[in-house]
């Protein structure tokens, strides 16, 4: 299913294959020989999404751009089932395994591997040829790749990255943070009310 969002329609190369249950919305460019499988969602929420050539987006993966953080995915990238990429740059020949999470402002260097259920956090840069092991967390600049049992170290780096401030423009110490966050984010997402199906 393809949707016009905020006046922009997806542009899909004629050699790309998009499953009938995939959703592609807004300012999205899909390159030659890409494969977008069932249940995948590629949604440009005010920022553009560009997929290079031979990109595979597997079942139920989510790729989301924001006005602040567009998404660029290079050539020969595999985005695994149930993986999530939000506002990030993914260079060529990257493997994002099942269940991986890549957050806003992240940059993953060429030939890197983010293995099953691993996380590349907000504004984190992975140099080329980096591996994030199964379930581990890459966080900070310069990057630290930490096992999930090191929560205090992850939080120390993550706190400085300021997720609510960077993504939502809200101070973490706001007493009603979640009230303001959900109201602000909800208003942005409500712009989908005017989407128009184009296929």
TrEMBL record:
> What EC identifiers does the entry list?
2.3.1.191
Keywords (alphabetical) are: Acyltransferase, Transferase
* Enzyme class name: transferase
Gene name of the encoded protein: lpxD
One family from Pfam that matches here is Hexapep
- Keyword Transferase included in the entry's annotation: yes
Q: GO MF terms on file?
A: UDP-3-O-[(3R)-3-hydroxyacyl]-glucosamine N-acyltransferase activity
For this protein, the record's InterPro entries field holds:
Hexapep, Transf_Hexapept/Carb_Anhydrase, Trimer_LpxA-like_sf
| Biological source species | Microbacterium terrae
UniProt-recorded name of the protein: UDP-3-O-(3-hydroxymyristoyl)glucosamine N-acyltransferase
């Amino acid at each position: 299913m393809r949707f016009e969002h905020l006046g922009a329609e997806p542009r899909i190369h004629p050699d790309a294959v998009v499953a009938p249950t995939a959703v592609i919305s807004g300012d999205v460019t899909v390159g030659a020989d890409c494969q977008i499988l069932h249940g995948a969602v590629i949604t440009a929420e005010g920022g553009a999404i560009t997929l290079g050539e031979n990109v595979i987006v597997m079942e139920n993966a989510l790729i989301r751009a924001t006005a602040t953080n567009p998404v660029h995915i290079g050539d020969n990238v595999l985005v695994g089932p149930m993986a999530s990429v939000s506002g990030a740059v993914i260079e060529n020949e990257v493997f994002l395994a099942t269940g991986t999470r890549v957050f806003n402002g992240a940059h993953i260097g060429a030939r890197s591997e983010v293995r099953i259920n691993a996380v590349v956090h907000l504004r984190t840069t992975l140099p080329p040829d980096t591996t994030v092991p199964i379930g581990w967390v890459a966080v900070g600049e310069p990057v630290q790749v930490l096992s999930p049992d090191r929560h205090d170290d992850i939080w120390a780096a993550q706190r400085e990255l300021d997720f609510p401030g960077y993504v939502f423009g809200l101070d973490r110490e706001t007493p009603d943070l979640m009230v303001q966050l959900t109201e602000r984010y909800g208003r942005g997402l409500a712009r989908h009310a005017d989407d128009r199906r184009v296929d």
